[in-house]
Design goal:
Oligomer: single chain
Strand content: under 5%
Largest sheet: 2 strands, antiparallel
Structural class: mainly alpha
Shape: globular
Helix content: over 70%
Distance between the termini: 47 Å
Order of helices and strands: HHHHHHHHHHHHHHEE
């Protein structure tokens, strides 16, 4: 068929069709050339992430059982509730993505995937696909270096990167629905009762590891999935990691302090912050999901994430928004410490409160410094460059062809 276009390219119609074919091929080649390499390091990160995911499940049930055996049923139930709610929500999103990706395929396969997700094992299917595709490209790169840009191996590489990004998106949901609230709960228990046990330290360490790895893995996937973003280098990884980890730690310590004063005030504050985040998300008119129900669930989850960390959901410049967000957190953190000075001055003399106050202020200041360094030196300044996101080519009859974008273009976190 290509030969017919070459023979007829001297005619008027042939010229238009031949021009359209060439432009379409150039567009496809350009789109594939934007696909970044899935490396052996990415493969081992995936393996490590799966191991940590399994260990995290075991630690949660171990800590919950220890609290239950000690008669602290409320803590045990809260830990299991965080685990259960986050698992349900991530399974729902995972199944919806499978259903959207496999739309029009064998219904028997979709039913099997539904059953797997019903038993909360959907994440393991995604790890299997990611490791399968990742192994094919990560350990066979040397044999494919001479392949053309439209070689099938590049399609497999894109599948590996897409599978990795889907996993990391689900891990972001899990981190802020389960890991971060559990970290807040464990710190509050330590501050409230003072007694420490090994399993409490284990839970706190697993929470910090989970948050840290999720933040870095998310940015790695983001840089690989979006063609206009540079690779995530070592220095930028650590800068971003400390920015997120320190600001989240400061805020969790602040919430723990206000919870010590009054659980009711703490709950009201968290609900108020969620309402504010959910309202802001509604005004952004997000289009992450295909159905309205899933879109509202997505906005609900984003509202929870915004309680603990800034979240860019539209891929736009957010200098003003992020400044307002962290300025508000700074004012609230200082306000909580001032409340202690006037409401509970007796607690100010305790060594525990002094240490926590210093850690809260220090982590906040350092977190803001790392934030400023990251955004001034390492963060891509442009989000929607037309040549990167969608190579527009004038086709027949003046139509424009666009490269199909992935889920990450509607799901961006800074």
């Amino acid at each position: 068929m290509r030969r017919w276009y070459c023979q007829e390219k001297d005619s008027i119609v042939g010229k238009h069709l031949y021009s359209f074919i060439l432009s379409e091929e150039r567009m496809t080649a350009a789109a594939v050339s934007h696909i970044k390499k899935f490396t052996k390091q990415n493969f081992f990160f995936l393996v490590g992430g799966m191991i940590i995911y399994v260990v995290d499940i075991g630690v949660d049930f171990w800590v919950a059982s220890r609290y239950f055996c000690q008669g602290q049923y409320s803590w045990s139930i809260l830990i299991l509730c965080f685990r259960g709610i986050s698992s349900i929500i991530t399974q729902i999103f995972s199944y919806e993505w499978f259903k959207n990706d496999w739309e029009g395929t064998d219904t028997g396969k979709q039913k099997l995937v539904f059953l797997v997700h019903l038993f909360h094992c959907g994440i393991f299917i995604r790890y299997w696909f990611a490791l399968k595709y990742g192994c094919q490209v990560a350990f066979k790169q040397t044999s494919n270096r001479g392949a053309s840009e439209v070689d099938p191996s590049n399609c497999i590489e894109k599948k590996a990167i897409d599978a990795m990004t889907d996993i990391n998106m689900l891990r972001v949901f899990k981190t802020f629905l389960e890991t971060t609230p559990q970290l807040f709960l464990q710190i509050y228990i330590l501050m409230e009762h003072g007694k420490t046990n090994f399993y409490q330290y284990a839970a706190i360490m697993m929470s910090f590891c989970g948050i840290s790895l999720t933040m870095v893995d998310y940015q790695i996937s983001l840089r690989k999935s979006l063609p206009d973003k540079d690779e995530f280098h070592v220095l930028s990884k650590f800068t971003y990691l400390f920015y997120k980890l320190l600001t989240i730690t400061s805020w969790i310590l602040s919430i723990s302090l206000i919870t010590l004063l009054s659980v009711r005030i703490s709950v009201i504050l968290l609900i108020f912050l969620w309402i504010g985040g959910f309202t802001w998300t509604l005004k952004q008119h997000t289009t992450f999901c295909k159905s309205k129900k899933m879109e509202y669930l997505y906005r609900t989850v984003v509202g929870i994430i915004l309680i603990f960390s800034f979240f860019n959901i539209k891929g736009r410049r957010t200098k003003v928004c992020i400044s307002i967000y962290y300025a508000t957190h700074t004012v609230m953190t200082l306000g909580i410490l001032f409340i202690y000075m006037f409401w509970k001055p007796s607690l100010m003399k305790g060594i525990c409160f002094t240490i926590i106050s210093i850690l809260t202020i220090l982590s906040l200041v350092l977190g803001i410094i790392f934030l400023a360094v990251y955004y001034s030196h390492f963060h891509p300044s442009t989000y929607c460059r037309p040549q990167a996101y969608s190579d527009e080519v004038d086709g027949a009859a003046g139509q424009k062809v666009r490269v199909k974008t992935g889920r990450f273009h509607n799901f961006l976190m800074q």
